[in-house]
Hints:
Layout: H1 7-20, H2 25-32, H3 36-43, H4 50-60, H5 64-68, E1 72-75, H6 78-90, E2 92-99, H7 109-121, H8 132-154, E3 157-163, H9 164-173, H10 183-206, E4 211-216, E5 224-230, E6 234-239, E7 254-257, H11 260-276, H12 280-294, H13 299-304
Helix pairs in contact: 1-6, 2-3, 6-8, 7-8, 9-10, 9-12, 10-12
Amino acid sequence: METSIRFNxxxxxxxxxxxxxxxxxxxxxEKLGISRAALYRAEKGxxxxxxxxxxxxxxxxxxxxxxxxxxxxxVSTATAFFERMxxxxxxxxxxxxxxxxxxxxxxxxDYDDMLREVxxxxxxxxxxxxxxxxxxxxxxxxxxVNRKSSFRLRRPLIASLISSADLxxxxxxxxxxxxxxxxxxxxxxxxxxxxETQHIVELIRDQPIGIQIGxxxxxVPATSFQIFRQTNRSVLAISPYRLGEQxxxxxxxxxxxxxxxxxxxxxxxxxxxxxxxLKGAEAIEYLEAMIEQxxxxxxxxxxxx
Length: 305
């Protein structure tokens, strides 16, 4: 178990929780009664006094132990969680995880446009009269796009476990933010889901360096998890947030930890699922049959043909 305090990590958590609260550096610095420069140094890990950390934790509504990364770090907003994912991915050599319906890092660029539409339609108008919900969605999407761009530049190894049940629902329903959408919109989302699933097939067929995909046919945990393997440690993230069919970015508490027992248990789960997952030609054949069975006809593909 780690015993040393990693001040850079504390600064990263501070920044993530600030973003999750929708606060600019200037706003938080003013609330704390410090200069913008002092806050900037704190977010870089240059923290001189425990009193300052205590004030920051109180202002952001997180525990001091969570901010310091002692034991388990709890993250109560999707925006802060995805910022923490971006930070962890910057320093990792390998990512292993179970995602729904697939790791966001492996999605196409078209997925981002669809996700923006879905997240915006999922917010009831009466809950966004001041535009705060839309602002939070835009901030989160900016973080997600930055994550994908950084991943494509750095190319850490990634092993993505995909639940076949999640993909079936994705093909059957598409990506939707609520259930009262016009049928034409639902049909178009299902066509996009079909194209995104076909994108997964092409990734398996092309076998880009460092990308491994396994299709899991057995029941999987209800929550997603990711293991970040870094040079001198591994970090586990367990998330209730979903970016797939019927996304959830509004409610939940994510966990981040390096606790040996949690790491060991999830490494065992990942190894077992990976060992039994379909890969390569078998996965391609299975997914193509699934697309034909559950996917809606892609009219745009017909026009191109």
